[in-house]
Amino acid sequence: MKTSFYSAVAVTMLGAAPALAGGLTAPVAEPVVVEPVVMATSVGPNWTGGYLGAQIGYGDIGTSLKGVEGDGAIGGLIAGYDYDLGNWVIGAGLDYDWTGIELEPAAVEVEEVMRVKLRGGYKIGNGLAYLSGGYAKAKTDVLGDDDGYFVGAGYEHRLSDRFSLGGEVLYHKFDDFNDSGIDVDATTIQMRAAFRF
To answer: Of 21, 55, 77, 93, whose Cβ has the fewest other Cβ atoms within 10 Å?
Structure first.
């Protein structure tokens, strides 16, 4: 009788063991929830590439000589290359402007201004707001030419993949122009149009 009792207990325990271990079926794995990865996306069009174009505007020139100054039209050609970093854009370029601004009453004419520039800016929709600076060279008819620098700011707006319009304000400084003892400063405000490739 004891043997029958022990046998019954053993059979019962063997039958209950799978239930105590979680049942006869394999447990269902919980699904792994993966959070989506949010990639940083750039705003607006891609600015990487070269450009050629033209600009036209107004220049105001002053000197360290009292009353010797002038203003007038200025305009020329632009070329450069931009690199798009996402929301930021950096670039380098060349500007070459012609002008016939007379510095009165000294009868000196500023004929040309050339710039080698760097710029960096932030994209705003289809536009780019930027700061710029670099090397400038100015040529006159009487005092020769001299090297200086410029700083400024601008905004350029992409009308399409190939065309952009913008505006730029630059401040130029030429200390001791061509060893003449005269300091020259100039401010230019220009509209720019570029074909991009």
So the answer is: 21
